[in-house]
Fold WD40 repeat protein.
Amino acid sequence: MSPTLDLAVFSGQHALHAVDAAGALRWRVRHACWGSSCLSWHDSYEEYAGIDHGHRHPDHGSCGISADGSTVWAHVRTPLPHDGESALDEEWLVFDAGDGRILGRASTDTGAAGSQHVPHPDPGQMGLRVGEGQDGSPLRWGRWDGTRITVTRISDDDRCLVDVSPCGTRFLTIAHWGRQPAIHRLPDGAVTHEVADHQIPPHPQAPSDVEEEPFWGYQCGFVDEHTVIASTIEGHGQPRHWLIDTTRGDVLGQVEYPIPVSEDPMALGDGTWLTCGEEDPFQLLLWCRS
């Protein structure tokens, strides 16, 4: 969704679709099908609906819109229809948001089961989290200078990008398989702080003779520039939410809610975060620090 809410872009199995606020198609760009063994360019879903396992359970890419709404970034499978005969690849494309013209493209060197864009406040930057199942979670950082896109590989494909700080100087990752959160600095992506598991006390419902490392939820993020909220998912009782100091990596304490809430918080970066009600998943609850 664009910042002005006048454009929404959808990443599909065979094409990107951009629609305006009234739901009218503004532009469409076809790409190679995400079906596991498909080598075709499709015009519609009806061409492949339910024909085989690879199309019923495909891999998928993703897309995102820059902070100023001027460009659309998309992780797609290529070649594109006008590329002619070329090998299957995955690329990061930058489009003009107004008319869908391709402004730049570069290979991501990934084999995605799925991906997710993580926006940056600088319109010329974007983060990309790629899931490769048990093989890892590549993290790619894109920079667009108005002429070309540059893709940088960050870490050893073992950390999942989840959020960028409000001012854009840091980002947050979770280790593959839900292990320790880490704060990274930009532009080089170096880890400045990891959140040690020993800071999390045992779950009050856990047996006293059982020691278990917590799993961290992937839906976490920056409440503000100096605070992250994250959840631990444990084998006993409800998940717990924690506030973390981004300047030191210290756990500040557990969030105590007056009512039961859902598993994962969604940080908004303005000092607040969202959860859903435990009994009603359609009930949105907005929270802030007291």
Notes: The longest helix spans residues 53-56. Helices lie at 53-56. DSSP finds one helix and 23 strands in the chain.
